[in-house]
Specification:
621 residues, Rossmann fold, five-stranded parallel β-sheet, 22 helices, magnesium, transketolase activity
């Protein structure tokens, strides 16, 4: 490049960066809130990226060759939207609707905007999701796209980032570039490391990354760092850019107390005058990716689910693994990840058969959920599994996945006191409540192997966040392999026109309810037994009918705390309709369990067949 060409290039970078700063100020002033100074610090980094290194077709955001950009520091949304305006994707009029009711330009980005892959704003999530997107590009789609993630220095304290660092290095994701906007100032003052950029670099190197320290306002250093990242072939790259918050405006630059504060109209005019932009509302063309469009549509075959014989015994966790294997054979878009317990969740069966589509996440549950979200960005069908208790560690990632409108499938095994000797630290007793509270979620709790296999297949074709709770112990197979189990349905296992009480159960407690049925029938007491395998959405119609035909008396029984689980799902069903509220008794785990045999623990918790019999007799007196 000649000196004149280089000068021209620097001027273009400068023009775009100043426009990004001005628009970040204008949009937040119009909104009366937002984060202009956090946007201004990264403007030079984004200018060089947009004009010289990013390949993206804004007219076709689903182009498989597009690079991916994730704004992990989601509060810098004004910068992102200003970039969209500079690319010609967003008008100036829309830019000024930032944070206003009805605008798609929310305070933090969401995929309501077609160029946003995932919602950000809860810090420490952008890089873990980027790991999933990059892994698909390198190992499955084998496409040359790059994944760029802009991080804030404050969010480097989040442990989830270091889960991402370790996994990205393990999988040698050279197509992943993390850019740290090290502007020193957080929400309440200086960050932990301030401008100690070398400390960040050493941490990156310790995790096996290619670390590069630059002046984040020196265009040549930025450009060179991006070029080095593109040329790295064996590891991900971590660019630590020393920047100034509020860069370019004297009364904002490196000044504490401006985080999350918009300028008023007078301050806006003074700031823009200082920035002295050479262009206003100019469109800067972004390079499009290569025109070749690989055929990523793989042949699919009918699913041949495993079949279990009636009256045999099998654990639903084993049926989960067997069903994954069947889905993998039928659909090459199915991918599986597990948190280093795959020999217990039985996801290892998929891993043995399809190692190229199985991604071990080790004991990093936050990264596991983020990885699943990243794979579905690329159109895959992810299943992620671990012990149900450990999904609580990743709950914020599940919550944000729902905001991202992500389609991911989760499996939690070893739930409830029925796991036995491992004790309460391993007993998920809050997972049904946790997952029911997620927006647009589906919560499933099968009681036998055939039912579990069918529900796993249902999940593969279902949108949103779906969760299946599986059981450690083997349970009797009570359903035919040819039965169907639609999401939102239930099974009435026993009923008569003389039912005095309806017992609603799921999973392990269904089998306790069936034992109770036999005992009560021998004493001349008829009960209706309902298998509510779909906890959310729950089968309201069957519950209403049961209440009407079984004397207005219902007993729910669950291996779960009483708050938020099956019992409350049943009660909620009656609040949604104009029908009499039945008398409902909730049997659930009321006290902290300890170790013991499953039967002992079920009895101690008051959710055994004996407890159900006693509850029925008390209710009909």
């Amino acid at each position: 490049m000649t000196t004149a060409e280089k000068t021209s290039q620097v001027q273009q970078w400068t023009n775009l960066a100043q426009q990004l700063r001005v628009d970040s100020i204008r949009s937040t002033t119009a909104a009366g809130s937002g984060h202009p100074t956090s946007s201004m610090s990264a403007a030079d980094l984004m200018s060089v990226l947009m004009l010289s290194h990013f390949h993206y077709d804004f007219d076709n955001p689903k182009n498989p060759n597009n690079d991916h950009f994730i704004l992990s520091k989601g509060h810098a949304a004004p910068l992102l939207y200003s970039m969209y305006k500079a690319a010609g994707a967003v008008s100036d009029e829309e830019l000024l609707t930032l944070r206003k009711f009805g605008s798609r330009l929310a305070g933090h980005p969401t995929p309501e905007i077609p160029w946003v892959d995932v919602a950000t704003g809860s810090l420490g999530q952008g890089l873990p999701v980027g790991v999933g997107i990059a892994a698909v590009g390198k190992y499955l789609d084998k496409l040359p796209y790059k994944v760029w993630v802009l991080l804030g220095d404050s969010e480097s304290a989040e442990g989830s980032n270091w889960e991402a660092f370790h996994l990205a290095s393990h999988y040698k994701l050279n197509n992943l570039i993390a850019v740290l906007d090290c502007n020193r100032l957080g929400q309440r003052g200086e960050t932990e490391l301030g401008w100690n950029t070398e400390a960040y670099a050493e941490r990156g190197r310790a995790f096996g990354w290619n670390s590069i320290v630059i002046d984040g306002h020196n265009y040549e250093e930025i450009d060179n760092a991006y070029r080095q990242a593109a040329a790295t072939t064996d590891r991900p790259t971590f660019i630590i850019a020393k920047t100034m918050k509020g860069k370019g405006v004297s009364f904002l630059e490196n000044k504490d107390g401006w985080h999350g504060k918009a300028l008023d109209a007078d301050q806006e005019q003074k700031a823009i005058a200082e920035l002295n932009p050479q262009v206003r509302s100019m469109v800067f063309p972004v390079q499009k990716p290569a025109n070749d469009k690989p055929d990523l549509e793989a042949a699919r075959k009918p699913v041949e689910l495993p079949r279990y014989e009636l009256n045999s015994t099998e654990a639903t966790r084993k049926a989960y693994g067997d069903a994954l294997l069947a889905l993998g054979a039928a659909n090459p878009d199915v991918v599986v990840m597990d948190g280093e317990v795959s020999n217990s969740t039985y996801a290892n069966e998929f891993g043995k058969a399809y190692p190229d589509r199985f991604f071990e996440q080790y004991i990093a549950e936050q990264q596991m959920i983020a990885f699943a979200v990243g794979t579905q960005v690329r159109g895959k069908i992810p299943f992620a599994s671990t012990f149900a208790a450990f999904l609580s560690r990743a709950y914020d990632f599940i919550r944000m996945a729902a905001i991202s409108r992500a389609n991911i499938r989760l499996s939690g095994s070893h739930a409830g006191v029925s796991i036995g000797e491992d004790g309460p630290s391993q007993m998920a007793l809050e997972d049904l409540a946790m997952m029911r509270a997620v927006f647009n979620s589906t919560v499933l709790y099968p009681s036998d192997a055939n039912q579990a296999a069918h529900l796993v297949a249902e999940m593969a074709n279902h949108g949103g966040i779906s969760y299946i709770r599986t059981t450690r112990e083997k349970t009797p197979v009570i359903y035919s392999p040819d039965d169907t189990f639609p999401i939102g349905g239930s099974k009435v296992v026993h009923q008569s026109d003389k039912d005095q009480v309806a017992v609603v159960a799921a999973g392990i407690t269904l089998h306790e309810a069936l034992k109770a049925y036999d005992q009560l029938k021998a004493e001349g007491i008829n009960i209706r037994v309902i298998d509510a395998y779909s906890v959310k959405p729950i089968d309201e119609e069957t519950l209403l009918t049961a209440a009407e035909e079984a004397g207005g008396k219902i007993i729910t029984v669950e291996d779960h705390w009483p708050e938020g689980g099956l019992g409350e799902a049943v009660l909620e069903a009656f609040t949604q309709v104009d029908a009499p509220m039945p008398q409902v008794v909730k049997l659930a785990v009321q006290s902290m369990p300890s170790s013991g045999k499953p039967a002992e623990l079920l009895e101690e918790a008051g959710i055994s067949a004996h407890a159900i019999v006693q509850a029925v007799k008390a209710l009909i007196k």
